[in-house]
Amino acid sequence: MRLAGKVAIVTGGTKGLGHAIAQAYAKEGCRVVCAARHPDERHELPPVGGGDLAFHPVDVRDPDSVDALTRTTYETYGRLDVLVANAGLSRPGPAERLDPADWSDVIATNLNGTFLSVRSAVPYLERSGDGRVITLSSALATRVARGSSAYAASKAGIEMFTKVVAVELAGRPVTVNCLSPGFVDEGMGRQLTANRDLWDYYRGKIAAGRPGQGAEVAEAAVFLAAEGSRYVNGHVLEVNGGLSW
């Protein structure tokens, strides 16, 4: 029970990789608020305070909505120890033909949403005495893939944002790290593995020869939230099965 007694917020926590992380945290004794714009009907999560896994609505693009999430979590449980800023989306397409609205939506959700979530959570995390911020990047933050300009730019921004905030909070009881998954058979990654031709191409670039599982990435997220990572700060942890390009 590496997270016993702790309270965490996972944005985008009702489905895909976010929900895998939330489930892993709960198994380790953590109370987890799964925050998203819409609840996932498959999981039927109770409202905040209703169980080890609970739901709270949030639009990470809206600072008032994010502030309501962190405030409600703190007021309900009396503490906030971990923020996993996971909410994200992708709008693929060549940059020259990408709709500006799609570009803006990706940046607003992925990059701005991470900023707003971290900004709102830090005062509560600091009160914990051992607060953890975990942002979510992607292998595409550092590797070129056609049609990924908006998504890749947002994730590259998240990685540098993470490193800057880690330095800004130096000396305060909050560490800030980034988790960078490769091709994972969850959420958006599942669409890739379902495309036989495309997946045959990318599979050859992975030493493990297979996509990652949500539980494998979630285990890394547990490490970054637990006692064993207290001297890890400003780091981008890649979990990608040995991905080359």
Strand tally is: 7
* Shape summary: globular
Strand arrangement in the largest pleated sheet: 3-2-1-4-5-6-7
Helices and strands, in order, run as EHEEHEHEHEHHHE
Report the CATH superfamily.
NAD(P)-binding Rossmann-like Domain
Structural class: alpha/beta
What is the CATH class name? Alpha Beta
CATH architecture: 3-Layer(aba) Sandwich
Stretches where pLDDT is under 50 for at least 5 consecutive residues are none
Over all CA atoms, what is the radius of gyration?
A: 17 Å
Terminal residue distance: 37 Å
Count the domains: 1
Question: Largest sheet, if any?
Answer: 7 strands, parallel
Number of continuous helical runs: 7
User: In percent, how helical is the residue content?
Assistant: 40-55%
What do these coordinates show?
- The protein has helices at residues 16-27, 63-77, 100-128, 149-168, 188-194, 196-203, 214-225; strands spanning 7-11, 31-36, 53-57, 82-85, 131-136, 174-181, 236-239.
- The termini are far apart.
- The longest helix is centred in the middle third of the chain and has 29 residues, at 100-128.
- The protein has one domain: Rossmann fold, CATH 3.40.50.720.
- 44% of the residues are buried.
- With 245 residues, it is of the alpha/beta class.
